[in-house]
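Appendix C reproduces, verbatim, an entry submitted by the partner laboratory led by Prof. M.T., so that reviewers can inspect both the input and the predicted structure.
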Amino acid sequence: MTNLSLYTVRAVIILDGDGNRLIAKYYTRGPGEPSYKTLKEQKKFESDLFTKTKKTNSQVVLYDGQTVVFTSSSDVYIYLVGDPEENELLLLAALQGFYDAVCQLVKYDLSKRRVLDNLDMVVLALDETVDDGIILETDGNVIASHVSKRGVDSIDVSLANLNEQSLIDVYKQAKERFNLALLK
């Protein structure tokens, strides 16, 4: 009988078309777990994984004793690494949700340049999908909506509205809000 656990993801890795790291998050479950602790071990794992998967048509591979699911776009490769006995469908659902969310956030132009330009939103989407190795969300629309709401909760002025207002109007509105905040 296998141990049931919420900790399903060991790593999330995003590489460019040459196999270079764009983003990598490795998760550990405890002191006894074998993991890629040093940067050198992580880079070697990523390089070898990229070499193995860059020409394959499969989305699921067993590599280095771990289940790896991946997808690619023009010059971006996204990997989710799990235990060898992990459910591939669950990992694929998480990967697809993350991929869909990132595509929405970068306006459906998933490339190395767009990932680097929107790195903050991509990392937030990753954190909304997987937290400490636990899959939190698999729906790309929900992930993207959570990420796009960050930082807007306390401000009800949209950027489009700011573009239509003059600088003096913005100053007056900020002054009124400041005065209201002082009165409360």
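The two ends are 60 Å apart (CA to CA). Additional entries are available on request from the coordinating office.
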